[in-house]
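Write out this protein's structure.
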Amino acid sequence: MVSIYLAGNVSNIKGNEDDSWREEFKVKLKERLDGIDARFLDPTVRLEHIKDSYTVFAQDVFFASNCDFVIVEAKNKVGIGVGVEMVAAKMHGVPVISVVPKESYYRSIDRYSEKNLSAELKSNWIHPFVQSLSDVIVENLDEAAKWIKEHINEKKKIKDHSVINEAIDYYKRYHYDNDEQAKEVFG
């Protein structure tokens, strides 16, 4: 059995789009993972006794930390919970597969990053937090299922909690000395 947590928008939050994508993901992934007993963890399924926000948080990070894979639906802008779920997965060595189609929200470069990047980097841009916390970025569920099968057959290198400290060390080593804002605040 393979457990897959489906991270992404939840429609009961104002401004979010329909979250029926989870049912589509379940059906398509079951088809594409032919021969694999895939079970899904869905944060929109709540037990009747879960009535407080802390328990909602606890359930979601528990699922993301203990499943075999986290799949992030990142076509549209997602809430803060998805980022926390991605970090929880990294803290526990769980592979994160982000579905980020071309021309989607997390491939749209922000004006702050755009001004300093080459044309090549702009054309391949993926939001830095999605890129850094994902083990693989795919454009569709076919690619996600293929990666899962490959990982099951031959374990791929997975990012863990060290991705955060490595990023901090990288910044300090290569960029801190040129960052007047950081030096003014941190000394």
